[in-house]
Amino acid sequence: MRSSSLMPTPEQVLRERSWRYCRSASQASESDLVLPRRTILQGDAATVLSRLPSGSIDVLVTSPPYYMLRRYGAGRSEIGTEESVSQYVANLVKVFEGAVRVLKEGGSVWLNLSDGYSRHPRYGAPPKSMLLMPERVLLALAKRGWVVRNKVTWTKPNPLPSSVRDRLTCTWEAFYFLTRSRRYHFDLDAIRVPHVSQRRPSDPTGRSLKYAAGKRPRWQGPLAGSNDGLLKARAEGRSGHPLGKNPGDTWRMATAGYRGAHFATFPPALVERPIKACCPERVCESCGAPWRRSTRGLTPNCRCRAGWHRGIVLDPFMGSGTTAIVAERLGRDWLGIELKPEYVELATERIRVERAKQEEVNKNDNEGRKTA
Ligand SMILES: C[S@@+](CC[C@H](N)C(=O)[O-])C[C@H]1O[C@@H](n2cnc3c(N)ncnc32)[C@H](O)[C@@H]1O
Question: Which ligand 1 atom sits closest to the C-alpha of 319?
Answer without folding.
Answer: 27
